[in-house]
Amino acid sequence: MTDDASPIRLGWEEWLGLPDLGLPTLKAKVDTGARTSALHAFDIETFGSARAPKVRFAVHPLPGNDELSIPCSATIVDRREVTSSNGETEMRFVIATELDVGDGQSWPIEITLTDRGDMRSRMLLGRQALRDDCVVAPSERYLRPERSFDVYSAKKIKETQPNRTLRIAVLSREPNSYSTQRIVHEGENRGHVVEVIDTSRCYMAINALAPEIHYDGKRLPRYDAVIPRIGASITSYGTAILRQFETLGTYCVNGSAGITASRDKLHAHQVLARHRIGMPVTAFASSPKDTDNLIGLVGTAPLIVKLLESTQGKGVVMAETKKAAQSVIDAFRGLRANFLVQQFVKEAAGEDIRCFVVAGKVVAAMRRTAGGDDFRSNLHRGGTAEAVKITRQERTAAVRAAKAFGLNLAGVDLLRSNDGPKILEVNSSPGFEGIEKASKKNLAGTLYEQIEAQVKPQPMRKRSTRSAAKAQTG
């Protein structure tokens, strides 16, 4: 400290902040008798690689009030044996973070994590964290600028919360697929820890008190979010696993109910019809006696006959004539397969539009054109893709379709017809490769922006604000 510099005066109890952890206001006890600093933390859990281990934990920043919980994460710098004032010894994780003492004064400190739930102060500032220009007045309190717990209110909490490292699970049986790899790499580039979980290797403990999900003999840890990439062949079991994550309170990008409904084409078209969303005229029947009437409901040939569980254009047949339609329908019935009969939109001319919807917005769109004589425009069947500008009507239809299924991430396929857009399908696990290349947009990054916004801590309620104000003056 230089001769003309003013010392930083601290009382035995102070208003301090740890902004890098999303804790701009804390009441701290300043204790020069303690060597190590400590932060009240619970649900402490390590994650990440052994080379760069991280720790995640939660903090109740309001004294005597456990309604507000701030989730935090940080890189572990050490694990240290600490003896508390009552003589108990404990192994604690040590993290580095910025200490804010007000008036523009801040510096890095090391702080240990421990459960101080029974302590009046949520933080203990030990002598190792004090700079040479700090002077502690042991008989005084609150010498630093006064702060308010209102920073945790609905208006301000989003501004005070930094981007933290999230632990994210991708439910996928194809870890090497482009889309899965794209999600993993983008998440890691943003500083998150992303783990691919094989859906078929998960199993569940279903009970009222402590529901769990296990994987390869171990209970799965808590995740901040789950990105489901559940294949059509495992929809039933995959959505059951997803329901278990929902039961645990984990944020799921797409819910189990929306995935289940979108995968069953009959159910999906009924959902679209219920929400009065335009689609090709569609008919379904079970009895062989209804074949002619079924065709008559849709209109004249050519017609589309589509298996209920078809994906990537498989199980979709165009019947050029009524007789051909009857033959295809009889063949499908002979296989005891469930199918739809659908109007063929001739003016679409072998093209459809894939709209990529994230959080209720169309963030990219591409036009897919069928290859050769094929009427199916799926890229997996040799179709080509290019970026396309869609109309307001098409954008609205795509957003409404995704919303009808409650999907935060969806690929909505539509046809351009003479009487407006017709929704063909709502895909709950859309691929990233074709549309990112066509649109030249970072759509995986857009998905993570949505996830990061969703897992922010919930703001303090008004009753909590009042109780915090009482604690502030106590």
Automatic annotation (TrEMBL):
Q: What would be one Gene Ontology cellular-component term for the protein? A: cytoplasm
Keyword annotations for this protein, in alphabetical order, are:
ATP-binding, Ligase, Magnesium, Manganese, Metal-binding, Nucleotide-binding, Protein biosynthesis, Ribonucleoprotein, Ribosomal protein
Q: Does the keyword Transmembrane helix apply?
A: no
* Region span, Disordered: 454-474
Gene3D superfamilies listed in its UniProt record: 3.40.50.20, Acid Proteases (2.40.70.10), ATP-grasp fold, A domain (3.30.1490.20), ATP-grasp fold, B domain (3.30.470.20)
Q: Which cofactor does it need?
A: Mn(2+); Mg(2+)
Residue intervals of the ATP-grasp domain? 269-452
GO-annotated biological processes: SOS response; translation
An annotated Gene Ontology molecular function? metal ion binding
InterPro entries given in the database record: Asp_endopeptidase, ATP-grasp, ATP-grasp_RimK-type, ATP_grasp_subdomain_1, Peptidase_aspartic_dom_sf, Rimk_N, Rp_bS6_RimK/Lys_biosynth_LsyX
Q: Does the keyword Manganese apply?
A: yes
The family assignment reads: In the C-terminal section; belongs to the RimK family.
User: What's the protein name?
Assistant: Probable alpha-L-glutamate ligase
Q: From what organism does this protein derive?
A: Histidinibacterium aquaticum
Lineage of producing organism: Bacteria, Pseudomonadati, Pseudomonadota, Alphaproteobacteria, Rhodobacterales
